[in-house]
Design a protein that fits this description.
The structure holds 2 protein chains of 2 kinds. By secondary structure, chain A is mainly β. Chain A has helices spanning 2-15, 53-63, 87-90, 138-154; strands at 24-29, 35-39, 43-44, 67-69, 97-105, 110-119, 124-134, 163-171, 177-185, 192-197, 201-206, 212-217, 224-229, 235-239, 245-250, 256-261, 268-273, 279-281, 290-295, 301-306, 313-318, 325-326, 333-339, 345-352, 355-362, 368-370, 378-382, 388-395, 398-405, 411-415, 420-426. The longest helix of chain A is centred in the middle third of the chain and has 17 residues, at 138-154. The radius of gyration of chain A is 23 Å and the shape is globular. Classes of the chains: A mainly beta, B alpha+beta.
Chain lengths: 431, 197
């Protein structure tokens, strides 16, 4: 009975359109203190736009946990530009921000989009812009507008127009697996597969230009590091030495990769200069595992995991080598470190009694805050504005992605059924 | 002492196949005639697998011999194919976050070391694995460390470095699906795969 059920379940999963299956984002808590905002559905003159831009913006702002868009039924009128707004009326709604805009078709292929964000109390425009984009660019434009609204009202950089990379795994009926390296919009929409393999794929890491991904692939029977260009799909093997080749991490200037190589007999941190192929060894500790390096934003130092003290902990070392200094002291297991773009906060996997949580550590004070609860959490990756941490977790035996704010207040779930999703990496902001 | 036991076992197997070939076994005589176990001198029973020399007297004090014969599990062939040989154990297990060889695996590794020492052209692939918990990258390194610990053990007992290929899959290739200690226990392992077999 169970077996039959399982079989039909997998059959169903296989029949679902693979490319179109987006991650479903669900806010699972922490919206109490959200800022009200009035978003008037954008006007579309005499046609229906291929993307509902204001809906995308509304979802972005709402998903961030920082904003509580007013329900459409509360909106007192439907202005699309300043001349149509009576600020006195809008002040009754207790919403400081008012977003209006409209879409018009230029030639059926190209669309003109304009938006204006107002401070209702001052009756003043905070930001307003007009764009012409092809139909295919409308969704991305919506995320960019959401970024500007977010920035105008919070003073922080918005990250809605960034992307997520992650690995998804399908268990085939014959017991084999299919690994896919995928890239989606920051809301999980529009997932595209950039690499598919029968062998494991691990540790995707975005170049600072967000045009290239480095990752580990087992396609040749062992862990090797590849770099792939997102636009062309062109890929290069950059480390295929004897032993392990893993844990790639781009330097802030995009010219080097920190790597873990065990070609000298033991996993050590190296820095590879991509243009010249010059390799320099950073750690020298033949008894310990040294791995998972990330660059400090100052480009001069690396953080990495080492068990040189007996258990995995985070250490800091100069990218030129030298003596490493232990950074984490709370808990017996700290690994998979990521660092916020201001260099002040670490995110890491924090083990307590065989359970693994996402925790943050303030680099100045050393204070540790555990953010998650399931005990099966791994692979933390900071949003480029440092507000949220994307991570992998497990629910009902399935891998899925989740995000949590650095203060632990806002929780999001990027759920999906039928396949395991893991190894998330949040892209930098596209320049 | 252990080596003596192994030699005795190998000789026992030789004797068995000799018996079988000579018609001593009811069930398996035909198979053994095509076997890879070469018995050079059937009368004296002095020449074992791979030219191990030992006195014939060991062979005849074998209550175990009868038991094995009675169970009819060994039908001749390479000792690597013998399900009763300690060499048939190709997986060793580890404690959590440990790469220390467990007491119960010592004799299995001794048998593999002896076999590798006696067959210098044989290559073995050691594949390290971990359970699913914690960092994937750390686990990749831990799996390699486990495989290297097994290599070290085998080399200390006579295998040579060029006989090894070492790989780690970390937590990427679990043997048992599941998210509890019983699954984790079976996934923290090193597989010993003889190359070309």
């Amino acid at each position: 009975m169970t077996k039959r059920w399982l079989a039909s379940f997998w059959l169903l999963a296989l029949l679902l359109p693979w490319q179109a299956q987006a991650l479903i984002i669900e806010i699972t808590g922490g919206t109490e203190a959200a800022l009200p905002i009035a978003i008037v559905p954008f006007g579309a003159e005499g046609f229906s736009a291929p993307e509902d831009i204001s809906a995308v913006i509304q979802n972005d702002l709402s998903r961030s946990g920082r904003f509580a868009p007013l329900p459409e039924s509360d909106l007192i009128s439907s202005p699309h530009e300043k001349s149509e707004i009576n600020f006195k009326d809008w002040r009754l709604l207790r919403s400081e921000g008012l977003l209006v805009g409209k879409v018009s078709s230029v030639d059926g292929e190209t669309y003109q989009v304009q938006f204006q964000l107002f401070d209702v109390y001052k009756g003043r425009q905070l930001v307003g812009k007009r764009y012409q984009v092809p139909a295919s660019g409308l969704r991305r434009l919506a995320h960019q507008i959401a970024d500007q609204v977010y920035h105008a009202l919070t003073g922080e950089t918005g990250v809605f127009s960034t992307r997520l990379a992650f690995v998804s795994v399908i268990n085939n009926l014959d017991g084999s697996k299919r690994y896919s390296l995928q890239v989606s919009d920051s809301d999980g929409a529009n997932p595209r597969t950039v690499l598919q393999s029968k062998q494991p794929i691990l540790s995707p890491n975005w170049a600072p230009d967000s045009e290239r991904l480095a990752y580990v692939s087992f396609e040749n029977g062992k862990a090797e590091v590849f770099v792939q260009e997102m636009r062309s799909g062109r890929r290069n093997s950059v480390a295929a030495f004897k032993g392990l080749n893993s844990a790639p991490a781009w330097s802030p200037d995009g010219k080097k990769l920190a790597l873990t190589l065990s070609k000298a007999g033991n996993p050590e941190i190296y820095v590879l200069e991509l243009a010249s192929g010059k390799l320099s060894r950073v750690t020298h500790n033949s008894q310990a595992i040294d791995t998972e390096a990330v660059w400090m934003p100052n480009s001069r130092e690396l953080l990495f995991t080492s068990d040189r003290g007996g258990r995995p902990q985070i250490y800091k070392v100069s990218a030129d080598g030298g003596r490493a200094k232990r950074v984490t002291f709370e808990g017996r297991y700290n690994a998979s470190v990521d660092v916020s773009s201001d260099g002040r906060t670490l995110a890491m996997v924090h083990g307590i009694n065989g359970q693994f949580y996402i925790a943050v550590q303030d680099l100045d004070t050393g204070a540790v805050l555990v953010l998650t609860e399931t005990g099966r959490d791994e692979s933390p990756s900071f949003a480029p504005n440092g507000r949220m941490i994307l991570y992998a977790t497990e629910k009902n035996g399935h891998g899925e992605l989740a995000a949590v704010s650095v203060d632990g207040r806002i929780h999001q779930r990027l759920g999906e059924s039928g396949r395991d999703v893991r190894e998330p990496a949040w892209s930098p902001i596209r320049k | 002492m252990k080596l003596l036991k192994l030699t005795a076992l190998l000789l026992t197997l030789t004797w068995l196949s000799a018996c079988a070939t000579l018609g001593g076994s009811k069930d398996s005589g035909d198979d053994v005639a095509n076997s890879d176990v070469v018995v050079e001198d059937r009368d004296a029973n002095t020449s074992g697998i791979d030219g191990n020399n030992a006195s014939g007297s060991d062979i005849n004090d074998g209550a175990e011999t009868q038991v094995i014969l009675g169970e009819d599990e060994y039908q001749g062939g390479d000792v690597l194919d013998d399900p009763n040989s300690p060499l048939s154990n190709r997986v060793v297990y580890f404690e959590y976050d440990s790469s220390t060889v467990r007491e119960e695996d010592v004799s299995i590794l001794e048998a593999h070391a002896a076999y590798l020492g006696e067959n210098p052209n044989v290559t073995i692939r050691l594949i390290g694995h971990t359970d699913e918990r914690g960092s994937r990258e750390y686990n990749l390194a831990l799996g390699e460390r486990r495989a290297l610990a097994i290599r070290q053990t085998l080399m200390l007992q006579g295998a040579s470095v060029k006989q090894f290929q070492v790989t780690s899959f970390g937590e990427e290739r679990t043997d048992v699906e599941g998210h509890d200690e019983s699954a984790w226990q079976q996934n923290r392992r090193v597989e010993l795969n003889y190359v070309g077999r």
